[in-house]
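User:
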Amino acid sequence: MENIIHPTEEETKFHISADVINIDERNKVLNHCNTFGLFDQLGNISPGGKMVQGIYHDGTRFLNKLNLAIDGKKPLLLSNAIKEDNEILSVDLTNPVLSEGKVAENTVHISRTQLIRNKVFLEELQCRYFGDQPCQFDLSLSFGADFRDIFEVRGTQREVKIPPVKLKKEGDRLSFQYMGLDNVARETTIVISSTADFYVIRDTVHFTVMLQPAEQTVISYTIYLKTDQEKNMDIDFQLAQETTNEELSSTRRLFASIYTSNTQFNHWINRSMADMLSLLTRTESGYYPYAGVPWYNTAFGRDGIITAMELLWLAPAIGRDVLLFLASKQATEFIPEKDAEPGKIMHETRNGEMANTGEVPFKEYYGTIDATPLFIMLAGMYYERTADADTIKQLWPHITAALFWIDNYGDIDGDGWVEYKHKARNGLTNQGWKDSFDSIMYEDGELAEPTIALCEVQGYVYAAKKHAAKLAVVRGELSLAGQLEKEAALLKQKFNEQFWDDQLNCFVLALDNNKRPCRVVSSNAGHCLFTQIATEEHARTLADTLLSNNMFTGWGIRTLSAVEKRYNPMSYHNGSIWPHDNAMIAYGLSLYGFEQQVLKIMQGMFDAGLFIELQRLPELFCGLDRRRGEGPTAYPVACSPQAWSVAAVFMLLQACFRVHINAVTKTVTFEKPLLPSYLEQVYISNLILGDSLCHLNLTRLHTDVGFNLLQKPDDWSVIIKK
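Assistant: Predicted structure:
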């Protein structure tokens, strides 16, 4: 009989339960900066049960009820759509029989157009009548606000008495007010604009609509989400739409453009770009990609860095802004309750009530083992892509502080491995990217004992020291550069000797406190290709292991092999498929020249997206084997959009093109590029090279790729190696 391990309440305290979302109700998502909304198919928000629907700002649900009714009845759904640029939810509704048969069904067309901007929600309702006699009906909007913290919504139990919500009515305004336990006043204010007469009863606004045949009326309202004494500038729907379009045009210029001969692939690219733009949030350091909606709509260190890496060849400015933001948040002192240590890069930051009161430790939390070496990696990759010496000069004290952390805090027991053991009382148990309590295990299924040295983290450290050595040369610190190169070489040799397992044909997942290996096959090992810590020999064997039937489902590479004791394709980290994980592995495979394996992963991800609503790759999906004629199986509480998932397509393309941009040598190199069979042509325009732009076309030939260079800077070279 197998030993069954039941998790403790402490271990699962931050687990997101599957029942916080009713999978039968496919939510529609709008998001902009710190504000997002989840709506049902009719554009409503239901307050019932554990439903996650609502409008959220800064980690708090400011609206938990929005219900449209016509003569007290539910309208009938015709259709709905998120617009291509991701900024508007459009819903078409019609009426049931009204006024005891005096208004026939399907004679009133109600068009709902909803838009979210930071701290503001706007809706415009257009009612047009297609009957042959005058009609009158009551159109009502009911509102509610509970000001629940996002952690409470996702299932964390609170042991405090929650203050009441107060409702105030004044003229054309309806306000819900809440004074939190963190002494922050939060307010949801609804401002009505309508040509139709209206009156308010408790939390419901009633509009008396009278229409002649073919007549139309417009009702609009704005919801302002206020914190403390901040003032919202009045904004109407048209101005909000114009401002959003201007903003989209501005941020889109940060990116190169990719267009292909495949319409479906173009839709994947366009949806990913729209989602990426919606997650970019302006900070004091520039744009930062917030991690994902609904659970992680805030700045995460690891997520932001990996997203910036996925986008680096197309949008290098995002990498700069991510680095500057994280440098400004870098820990400078030892604070155990935050898992903070000097030089360490932040895991996440939150502004909700529970973070402010300390009920959860994530106000500014540093419980991540990998963000610090990844930060150094990104700095090196960014410099190579841009030759931006001024930014590196600004970052250099933060880079050296991060190196100090790796050697003096990351290596807890002085054995040469970077490892973790959480110090915060209610912090994360596991602190790699797979941070579920049960994600690190031995071959018998028992959970590993900390301290834990993850295989991919050693790869990140190796790459960090390689990149830091190059940056040290730029800074004129040649002695440090030599030392870092030597340390990296020794680490690579030691790693391949101690982490490689000949029976598994894979790097072990981790070493525990007693250096006992976690002998399981996992996708973590694939990141050792991304960082190039794997030897050529081990990389060749590992590529076969990762694309074997136990790991590759037809959609992508699983997080855990199907033969492992803890394999569960419906788990968060123990058998599911994560797009960003696959993109990083594919890029790593391309570095070793394994082109066919790259194409196999690209094909799986592209095919998966064709079955998923909006062609938007979510945070993860279940790792069940691909079945003919069926799409991938959804994971019920996956974030969507999720930054590093929507950015995955761009790193997958980079892996296929095998393109390397070096601004130091002013070269763009394509090394034996490949185009999949479904991409006959690819057009790349506005590729930023220094202060200029590059435009080029790639064409798939029978056994080759042809190039047509349309424009490049005079002092840059484009090199095609075949």
